[in-house]
Design a protein that fits this description.
273 residues, 4 helices, 47% strand
């Protein structure tokens, strides 16, 4: 084989490798942790599939009981949609054991990359939304958060460096981003009863760069689940195009007088408790 053909073959192999790596990075990914985020079981969807499902069963270290955690992650990427979206649906935490289990530390997170809409802008041009909903049911002793450090939260993140899971706890990213974090209560219910909960937080932001990544996660600390109880969850994160407000256009004319420090700011973290 001539040197020319060898170089051509090597170049082709490099291109194929890069394309495969890019496809794997862009696929929707679901991660489930049963130890508070120290270790994760990872499920990655096929390229362009837009969906991945995963489940984990683990044994409680105190009672020896088995807990089942499952979820479905979806995305509308790829696609030039005016609204970017990732979600986790059919999230289920089940205690099928005859006794309650306490002090669980669970993290369920999803992420996808390479969103190109809404486009980048130095002015606010997107509505960032973080929505959660859930149901507690079929319980002998209720589903409660117990202990001094008990906490339940849902966080959505947009990362403009296009880093998968960028903006979520423990993930370091090189660029700016936006986050919405909300804490919520899981209602305790009696046998045969159900309890519903949900909330939506929103903020108008500017998309610093494209492509970007979207992610979200449910995080539970000190979660106690009654005998026969279950929690069903849905979490949705969207970034939707919005028209530029007329006031923003007027503000541009005043920039020489007001300064441009706002345009130079790094994206602040938006926390909602």
């Amino acid at each position: 084989m001539s040197n020319y053909l060898k170089k051509l073959t090597l170049l082709g192999a490099v291109v194929v490798t890069l394309l495969c790596a890019s496809s794997a990075e862009a696929a929707i990914t679901l991660k489930i942790s049963t130890d508070g985020g120290v270790n994760f079981t990872t499920f990655t969807g096929a390229e362009n599939a837009g969906i991945v499902m995963g489940s984990v069963s683990f044994t409680d270290g105190i009672t020896g009981a088995v807990i089942d955690v499952s979820a479905t992650a979806t995305t509308n990427q790829p696609g030039n949609f005016p609204t970017a979206r990732v979600s986790q649906t059919n999230v289920s935490v089940n205690n099928t054991n005859p006794a309650a289990i306490g002090l669980l530390a669970l993290v369920i997170r999803v992420s996808d990359t390479d969103f190109i809409q809404p486009g980048a802008s130095p002015l606010p041009n997107a509505l960032f939304s973080s929505s959660l909903s859930g149901t507690v049911g079929n319980s002998n002793s209720g589903v409660v958060l117990s202990g001094l450090l008990a906490d339940a939260s849902f966080q959505s993140a947009a990362d403009y460096s296009n880093t998968k899971f960028g903006g979520l706890p423990g993930v370091i990213t090189p660029g700016p981003g936006d986050t919405l974090t909300q804490n919520f209560l899981v209602p305790a219910v009696g046998f045969g009863a159900t309890g519903n909960f949900g909330n939506t937080q929103q903020a108008v932001v500017n998309v610093d760069a494209t492509p970007f990544a979207l992610s979200n996660e449910f995080r539970f600390t000190g979660l106690s689940i009654g005998a026969g109880a279950s929690i069903e969850l849905t979490g949705v994160t969207t970034l939707a195009s919005v028209p530029a407000p007329p006031a923003a256009i007027l503000a541009l004319t005043a920039l020489p007088f007001l300064g441009v420090s706002w345009l130079r700011r790094r994206k602040a973290v938006v926390k909602v408790g």
